[in-house]
Amino acid sequence: MQFQTLKTDVLILGSGGAGLFAALHASRANPGLDITIAIKGLLGKCGCTRMVQGGYNVALSPGDSVERHFMDTISGGKWLPDQDMAMRLCETAVIRVQELENELGCFFDRNDDGSLHHKAFAGQTFDRTVHKGDLTGIEIISRLMEQVRALPLQMMEEHRALALLPSRDGDVLAGVLLVDMRSGEFRVVKAKTVLLATGGGPTMYRYHTPSGDKSMDGLAMSLRLGLGLRDMEMVQFHPTGLLAGRDTRMTGTVLEEGLRGAGGYLLDGQGERFMLNYDAEGERATRDIVSRAIYAEMRAGRTTSNGGVYIAMSHLGPDLVAAKFPGMVKRCADCGFDLAAGRVEVVPTAHYFMGGVVVTTDTRTAMPGLFVAGEDAGGAHGANRLGGNGVANSTVFGGIAGDEMAAQASLQNHWVEPDSEVIEAAMERSMLPFRQAAGSINSIRDRLLDLMWDDVGVLRDADGIKRAQVEMVALKTELQACGLADDNRVFNLSWHDWLNLSSLIEVSEVIAAAALSRENSRGAHYREDFPEVGSLDDSYFTIAHSDPEKVGQTVRVECQPVEFSIVKPGESLIH
Amino acid sequence: MSDSSTASITVHVWRGNSEGGSFDEFQVPQQPSQTILDIVTWIQRNLDAGLSYRFACRVGMCGSCAMMVNGIPRWTCRTHVNKVMRDKQLTIEPLRNLPVIKDLACDMSEFFAKWNQAQGQFQGSTTRDEKIAPISPCSPEREAANAAIECINCAICYASCDVVAWNRDYLGPAALNRAWSLQNDVRDTAGESRLAAVAGDAGCHRCHSQQGCASYCPNELNPTASIAGLKRLTASDFLRRRYRSRHA
Fold this sequence. Notes:
By secondary structure, chain A is an alpha+beta fold. Chain A has helices spanning 17-29, 66-76, 83-102, 136-149, 217-224, 258-261, 287-299, 318-324, 326-334, 390-411, 420-431, 441-455, 462-480, 493-517; strands spanning 4-13, 35-38, 56-57, 118-119, 129-130, 154-156, 159-166, 173-180, 186-196, 229-230, 235-242, 265-267, 309-312, 343-353, 356-357, 370-372, 540-545, 556-561. In chain A, strands 1, 2, 6, 7, 8, 9 and 16 form a seven-stranded mixed β-sheet that branches. In chain A, strands 15-10-17-18 form a four-stranded antiparallel β-sheet.
């Protein structure tokens, strides 16, 4: 098959906080480098950093410390985080927020005296979340985007990565195969260094929050390269996603945490409060507890007409609600709901993926030449991510990746030839739907989303997970045989729907296998047949490998003990 | 195919590319909760797999999905069908004033190139190793900067602007609005060169204050007022320079 070949020193996949920071840092470290950034959508406009509402955790206020931020991260992650990564995250966040303000022009909310405002956020022992109202991500990405757009780099917008390409001997990464979504043409970009920063985004669940372009392509490509993925059972659910029916893309999008914090009620289908039956904190309990309670109510059938529960704010006074949450009230109103005075149907919704590629603290992987940062990388959050640590993670490690890649690419004066068989096989695989009779991709998608929601979701047990595994093998086979109704490759969303589903199924298989292997309940992972947390001292994390080319269940999961390199359970850095 | 889909909507969708196109008609079942983006998605998933459009966040944060809906530029993800439908009819077209890639998806390159031309980037004087400057949120400069800041570059203002339609070089409301916000940022050091960049033939003085941008901005920003601010700044800068040159 035909493809065009390009060459670059640094290739970045993705333009969220990680990708954009990598571009800025690599360019600043060595302005002579040829830098290319390839994005599935438009630069800075797709992905999830832009959707950050809460803010950015950073130990900057008097009385707070990096050690305290670190301890909150470890404790929130239920002792599973890679401690060296978590420490690097907390330390570097300080410099990164100063960089965002002083060099890139972000303006975070201030106190009246002009000092930076830090807000309280769940799971933290200090008010340390820097923010811009409840639209922090827009400020960060807009400022990053305009800086990056002014750099002399190569932009490949609406280019989807299809495969990470190793060298012939498989020893190093040689480049990436992409498809130009606007023309349908294939491109191979040979690169001295590659950053995978496509973002996670668990969109294989019936209800999910991430941007619609997210489909776990990065992790699917990493699996095919043979890399190990850690913590793949750890999927974070947000308790209150909008529920508006199956046929609207509004369904699943987040109604913010602050609504419950401010005193909002959750009501079952009959209009009765139920949270106090589950936790003394009621609606103010943590995300995981509230998500499980709502899920249990739903399973018991005490639901609204669309199968969820209600959030009600009106008892606080509609005017007060409208004044305090203008963005949320307006969004609901645009969609036809009255959040201030009425009730809005909500449902738990898959939000963030703690799992990802095993990396070092300087974003390197087991494959020389490949760097991974942001939600594609595992380790920083362990079993649960604190709100406000997501954007810190992507911007901190994205910047580090940019520095590291620039240093490495500057020393290397040659490109490596990618394995032509891998290129050919990946193109062939992506063209598969054009060679089959048109099928019903919608039904395959619906079944996957329901399957993951029902059997590998908020509450799990061995029977359900095994049922899902069998069904996933069938779905994979059906997708292979499912063709497209339109054979024009130009801006063909249906083709990309097919490719999205392919990635989602491959990664779902790994989530299921990791969830089956962890026979305890930690953080975001809850096994009804193993509800105990397990010994903290014997904490382990999972590493999964998979061979998506083989038929059947091909995921191997092994467990590795957590190395308590900085602090052991029972100890603290805070005295 | 929900049970509630008793009525159907007649949707006229523009199909084509940079060389031209025409309208296709589709019948889409009406749902209680349904945005324009849902209509377009329904068509692509159920009626015509080849329909091209662009979206990302689904919640009005990314500004990727703007289209002309019954002749008016809108975020399709946040526009409920009931708000815009007339006689069970909808007309959906690609955003005005931008080249079409295919069907409903536009090429936004020129929009962002103009953001650069207007020097829509912050340039500070301090570094990542220094503390963050204390700045009162109530100072007049900061209030002016904040009033213009919540732009998500969706290009709705650009599509609504007649001056852009007449003069392809005109920088447009979004880029100029960003420049104005930066001119009021007390931390920024590039004010002088930015002012020169927006004062030229394609800059702020081209604006006819027709208010299309301010009428349609989904975030209720007022680029016309920002551009008026830039006009005042450039005028006072011009007078100051003239005075200096005569009295040097």
